[in-house]
Amino acid sequence: AGRAAFVAELNDLGRALQGATANSLADEVINSAGWDLLSTSLGLASKPLLTVYATEGLAAENRALSEAVRRQSGSRVQAIEIESDHSFADRRIALAVSVVRWLQALDTAKP
What we know:
It is built from five helices and two strands, in the order H-H-H-E-H-E-H. The protein has helices at residues 3-10, 22-30, 41-44, 59-70, 92-109, and strands spanning 48-56, 76-85. A two-stranded parallel ribbon has the order 1-2.
């Protein structure tokens, strides 16, 4: 168990992330205690923001970030929760459609 089991779970990358290995991802997660995306909400509020997250992933954390950004004045955040696992393995078309629709809406919102 422990780190070896965690690394084994991450070892399904299929070379999807250039330069990333199961070990390097494990190191990032294990050493992530200082990560605090909520503290970035003010900066994120000045940009259009789309958060798409899976119910089987870090949904609570993503919801909290979306709400923190939404509370900032002038924010333009859209949060989409998709019922799926963290890789959206069974909902990749829904994921792609969500992103494309959001991008299209940005394009039509330009002055």
